[in-house]
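Section 5.1 Outputs to date
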Amino acid sequence: MSNHPQSSETVNNSTIVVEAWDGKVMPAVYHQTMYKGDCAVILDIFEFQKEWMTSMINENTSFVEIGCGTAEMGSILFQQARYTVGLDKNNEFLALAIELHPAMIDYPTNFLIEGNATEAMSLLKSTLPEEFWDTKRIVSMLMNTF
């Protein structure tokens, strides 16, 4: 009997999360965090990731970010890496990435791909040029879940 309320609560939380994504609330929260500095912890983590990734990328390296969101990391690395690839299943995030980073979007070796992480290899194989597979690849995956 005590498990029943937990099950209902889990279902309700899942519904809330789905509604938040569908209603564009989560992209707005992410944008607020990244651009307005509303969450110092997230900004600190991002600064560390930025320094670390930048130190590993060169013209013979490709960067793949699964769950790229608004492609913040790709926007920093796209001129340094041979290829930058962002994969996200949320087209609202990808639309925001295009709006926020027009120089990156116009760059010929940058790719934003809509799709699920479970299909990443298939999506990459069907989208990227043969030369991509000859580069050293750094893959980043950071999933934000509730």
